[in-house]
Specification:
This protein is of the alpha/beta class. 40% of the residues lie in helices and 17% in strands. The protein has 2 domains: 2-171 and 223-250, NAD(P)-binding Rossmann-like Domain (Rossmann fold, 3-Layer(aba) Sandwich); 189-220 and 253-323, UDP-galactose 4-epimerase, domain 1 (Alpha-Beta Complex), CATH 3.90.25.10. Strand 5 (110-116), helix 5 (139-158) and strand 6 form a beta-alpha-beta unit. Bound molecules: uridine-5'-diphosphate.
Length: 326
């Protein structure tokens, strides 16, 4: 079976490509390399240097025929999206329309879309299951929800099947260390912890320690990218086998505080990792934890590497290799 992975040179995309290759699929990556890296390309996958804002290039790439398309190409910084909504509207929403229309022309029946917990907004109840109200509180989350709705219409009107996978906090690196590129200018907690551990940063900030949580810092649900990747393959197989679209939340179902993450990283890396508590970051809910019951039931998915030590250790190995730290 042939799969096109758009955004396959990025952090999550490269792990998804690796998983499809491991399962014997033929994979083509399409990426504009704006945030993805050539280091993340695997020899076994074909590569097209393309851009989702260039519909002709998309159509050309899709013309050879694919059984499914995984779409991970997007702008993803929630804070940034509040200042540059026009960029997010164009890249995320218009870019996805280009992909869906090109896929329709090429007869691609199955779409896997990387969505986000940001579609839910502040939690009304925990854990967050698929029935939780969808009230995005940042523009990024709004774009992801609009795309989900768009895909639902394309299914109803054109029979194009989709799986939307709502990631909670993606973290970790390939446990076999086959993904070589690190994210540039990371804004997420664990890469920032690691940049501090390797000395790229002198110290880091803890955004708020007065939340109503066990140590005052925010609780998040970190899910390993290798676990996210297996869900994409299972979702594709579900579409092929059942011809039925689906949306699933994907997290480890375990809450970790910011301080717990930093403290365990100190123990695993043996580095000091100076961290000072500062003011809260606007828009941060105190606690976000997923229910992945549906993913387990419908996809047979299970988190195998999403325990705190595997998350930190696999990321530390990637940073050690990159910065040649013994
Ligand atoms: N965080 C922090 N310092 C940082 C980066 C993140 O304290 O330098 C906190 C952030 O406030 C949140 C958690 O770590 O509570 C996870 O943040 P991240 O940006 O990784 O993911 P988000 O929860 O925003 O999707």
């Amino acid at each position: 079976m042939k799969i096109l992975v758009i955004g396959g040179a990025g952090y999550i995309g490269s792990h998804v490509v690796r998983e499809f290759l491991d399962r014997g699929y033929s994979v083509t990556v399409l990426d504009n390399l704006s945030s993805g890296s050539r280091l993340n390309l695997f020899d076994e996958a074909a590569f097209v240097h393309g851009d989702i804002m260039l519909p002709l290039r998309l159509r050309e790439a899709m013309a050879e025929g694919f059984d499914g398309c995984v779409h991970l190409a997007a702008l993803k910084a929630a804070g940034d999206s509040m200042f540059r909504p026009e960029a997010y509207a164009e890249m995320n929403i218009a870019g996805t329309i280009n992909i869906l229309n090109a896929a329709l022309s090429a007869g691609i029946q199955n779409m896997i879309f990387s969505s986000s917990a940001a579609i839910f907004g502040s939690p009304r109840h925990l854990p967050i299951d698929e029935k939780h109200p969808k009230n995005p509180e940042n523009f990024y989350g709004f774009t992801k929800l609009e795309i989900e709705r768009l895909m639902d219409w394309y299914d109803r009107l054109k029979g194009m099947k989709y799986a939307t996978i709502r990631y909670f906090n993606a973290a970790g690196y390939d446990v076999q260390q086959r993904v070589k590129g690190l994210e540039m200018n990371p804004e997420n907690l664990l890469p920032i912890v690691m940049e501090t551990a390797v000395g790229v940063r002198k110290g880091m900030k803890i955004f708020g320690d007065d939340y109503p949580t066990r140590d005052g810092t925010c609780i998040r649900d970190y899910v390993h990218v290798n676990d996210l990747a297996t869900a994409h393959v299972s979702a594709f197989e579900h579409l092929v086998d059942n011809k039925e679209s689906l949306s699933v939340n994907l997290g480890s179902e375990t809450g970790v505080t910011v301080r717990e993450m930093i403290q365990r990283a100190r123990e695993i890396t043996g580095k000091e990792i100076p961290a000072v508590a500062t003011e809260r970051r606007p828009g941060d809910p105190a606690e976000l934890v997923a229910s992945s019951a549906k993913a387990r039931e419908v996809l047979g998915w299970e988190a195998r590497h999403s325990d705190l030590d595997s998350l930190i250790d696999s990321t530390w190995q990637a940073y050690r290799n990159h910065f040649r730290i013994s």
